[in-house]
Amino acid sequence: MTEPVADGSWESPGRGLGTALADIARTIGSPVPIESVRVTGASDDSRTVRPGDLYLAFPGSHAHGSNHELEAYERGAVAVLSDRPSTVLPTVVVDDPRRSAGAVCALIHDFPADAMDVYGVTGTNGKTSTALLLAAGLEASGETVGTMTGIGLAGPATWSPTARTTPEAATVQRTLGRFRDEGATAVALEVSSHAVSEHRIDGMRFSAVGFTNLGPDHLDYHGSMDRYFAAKAELFAAHRTAAAAVGIDDVYGRRLAQLVDVPCWRWSVLDIRAEVFGEHIECTGVDTTMTVRTPTGSIDVRLPLLGPHQAGNALAALATALAAGKDLAVVAAGLESVRSVPGRLEKVDAGQPFLALVDYMHNTAGQRRLLPFVRTLVTGRVIVVVGATGERDPGKRFPLGATAAELADVVIVSDESPLSEDADTIRAAVAEGARAARSASVVVEPDRRTALALAVKMAEPDDVVVVAGRGCDTEQAYGRDIVEFDDRVVLREVLKDLRRETGDRL
Ligand SMILES: CC(=O)N[C@H]1[C@@H](OP(=O)(O)OP(=O)(O)OC[C@H]2O[C@@H](n3ccc(=O)[nH]c3=O)[C@H](O)[C@@H]2O)O[C@H](CO)[C@@H](O)[C@@H]1O[C@H](C)C(=O)N[C@@H](C)C(=O)N[C@H](CCC(=O)O)C(=O)O
Ligand SMILES: Nc1ncnc2c1ncn2[C@@H]1O[C@H](COP(=O)(O)OP(=O)(O)OP(=O)(O)O)[C@@H](O)[C@H]1O
After folding, report:
1. From the CB of 367, is ligand 2 less than 6 Å away?
2. Is the CB of 370 under 6 A from ligand 2?
3. Is 192 annotated as a binding residue?
4. Is 505 within any annotated ligand binding site?
5. Which of 10, 41, 290, 298 could form an SS bridge with 281, CB 3.0 to 4.6 Å?
6. Which ligand is nearest to the CA of 151?
7. CA distance 266 to 388
8. 313 annotated ligand-binding residue
9. How far from 159 is each of 10, 119, 147, 156, 198, CA to CA, in Å?
10. Cβ(329)–Cβ(180) under 8 Å?
11. pLDDT for 379-424, tens place per residue?
12. Domains, the chain, with CATH or none
C-alpha cells in the first residue's frame, strides 16, 4: 500500500526570510492576525506540510481541512489560511480560501509566473499531448521549458509525479518557483476545467492559452455542457491571458473563438479561414504528415506520432506558440522532434505478429477519433480492453462500453482504478453498454492482467489489440489498496508469456 502524498511533494525552496503573514492578510484584504509570523511555503494537505508552511485549510467534499490542522501544526505549519479560525495557529480568515490561494501562494513564492512566460493548454482531449508538443516548440525557439501535465511536473532539473491534471494553487505556485529557480524561461501548463473552477491557476496571467476541443466529460462535476464550456471559456478572459489559440472544428471551439477578446489564432483542419490550417493530412502506422498554412507562410510537418488527433494537437500547439509571437519554422521543427507521448497510442512490441497499442482514451470523443484510425492500420480485427475509473462521471460508463463495441470487433471489459467505488458496479455499467451495442463479442474479465492476457491470446496475425483507458498510469487503486500496474509493462509481460507458451507461433 502506498501512502497518499500531495502533488509535487518536493521540498519548497523557501525564499529568504519568508513572507510576513501580515502582508498575506493585507494582500487579500483580511484582518491581520499577528504581525511577527513569517511563512516560507504553503500546503493544502496536512500530510505534506513542511516546517514554516502556511496550511491552507479548505472546505472539502468529505471533510473540512481544519479537521487536519493538528497534523499540519505537528509537521511545522506556522499559520493557517481558512474560512474559520484555527484553534492552534494564527489564521488569516477569508470567506473563500480557495479563491485567495493563488494570489497568496504567488506572493509566498515571489511571483514566479512574472519571471517566465507561462502558457496554458485546455480542452477535453489532447491537453497533455498539446502541452508537450508546445514545450518542444518553445525549446526549439530557445526557451528553457518546464511542463506541468497529468504525466508529471517536469522542470529543467527536477521531475515529480502528480495525481491530478492540474494541481492545487499551492503546488502550481511552488512548482513555478522551482522551475524559475532551475532556470526555466517558459512553462507549458495543462489546465483542467476543475482547475479554473477551483481557482488553482489564479494569481498569474498566461502569455497564451490554447484550446483543443470540447466533448462530453466531467458532467458529474459541471452539471451540463454549457457550464463545462463556461469553465473552459473563463481561462480565455483578458485578465487571464494575453493571447489565445482556439480550435474551431467543434461547436464549442467556434463559440469560444467568438467570445475571446484577446488576440486569437484559430486553428482547424476543416475551415480554411482559420489562421492555422492543416491540410493534406496523412496518417500511417509510423507517422503523421500535413501541410500547415498560416499568415506567415506554409510548411510541411512530419510528426513521428500516430493518429489524426495528433495532427490537431500539433496545430493547437503551433497556434498557441504563434499567438505568442514565435517563428513558424522554428516551432514546427520543435514539434517534429517529439517522438512519442507516453501512453498515447504507444506501441508495445515483443515480437508478436500483431499490433499492440496502449492508449489513454477514456471518453467517447477519444474513442470515436482514435478507433476508426486504428482500424485502418490492420486488415484483421480490432480487440479492445475497456473499463472506467471510479469517482469519475458515472454517466460515461455505459457509452464507453457501447462505443467500444460499435467500433471494435472484440471488447474485453475489465477494471481500471475503482478507487472508493464498487468495481462490480462500474464494470457492469460498461459491460451493459458493450452488450447493448450488439455489434462486437463482449467478454468480461475483472482482473486486468488476465484481461490483457486474454486479448493477446485471441489476437491473430493482422489483428490489433488496444489496451484503453489508463495510458501511462502506473498504479491501480481498489479503495485504499494501491498496486503497481502499468498497462505497457503488463502488456509486454503477457506478450512474452504468450511467446513462451506458443513457442514458434510468435
Ligand atoms: C473535486 C476535487 O477537486 N476534489 C479534491 C479535493 O477533495 P475533497 O474536497 O473531497 O477533499 P477532502 O478529502 O474533503 O479534504 C478537504 C481538505 O482537507 C485536506 N486534507 C485531507 C486529508 C488529510 O489527511 N489532510 C488534509 O489536509 C485536503 O487536501 C483538502 O484540501 O481535495 C482532495 C485533496 O487535495 C483531492 O484529492 C480531490 O481531488 C479529487 C480526488 C480529484 O481527482 N478531483 C478530480 C475531479 C480533478 O480535480 N480532476 C481534474 C481534471 C481531470 C481530467 O482532466 O480528467 C484535475 O485537474 O485533475
Ligand atoms: N485531439 C484529440 N481528439 C480526440 N481525442 C484525443 C485527442 N488527443 C488525444 N485524444 C485522446 O485522449 C487521450 C488522452 O490524451 P491527452 O493526455 O493528450 O489528453 P488530455 O486532455 O491531457 O487527457 P486528460 O484530461 O485525461 O489528462 C489520448 O490517449 C487519446 O485517446
Report:
1. no
2. yes
3. yes
4. no
5. 290
6. 2
7. 33
8. no
9. 9, 19, 9, 8, 25
10. no
11. 999 999 999 999 988 999 999 999 999 999 999 999 999 999 999 9
12. 3-104 (3.40.1390.10), 112-336 (3.40.1190.10), 346-502 (3.90.190.20)
Query: How far does residue 366's CA lie from ligand 2's centre (Å)?
Result: 7
E strands in 11-68: 19-20, 38-39, 41-43, 53-57
Q: What distance in angstroms lies between residue 213's CA and the mean position of ligand 2's atoms?
A: 10
Q: Residue 215: which of 396, 40, 48 has the closest Cα?
A: 396
Question: Is 2 assigned to a binding site?
Answer: no
Q: Which protein residue has the closest C-alpha to ligand 2 atom 30?
A: 361
Grid cell, residue 253, equals 471551439
State the pTM of this model. Answer: 0.94
- Sign (positive/negative) of CA torsion 31, 35, 41, 43? negative
Kindly state the cell numbers that stand for 306: 500516430
Rounded distance between C-alpha atoms, residue 288 and residue 314, angstroms = 10
Predicted ipTM?
Answer: 0.94
336/333 Cα distance (integer angstroms): 5
Residue for grid cell 513564492: 109
pLDDT at 5: 33
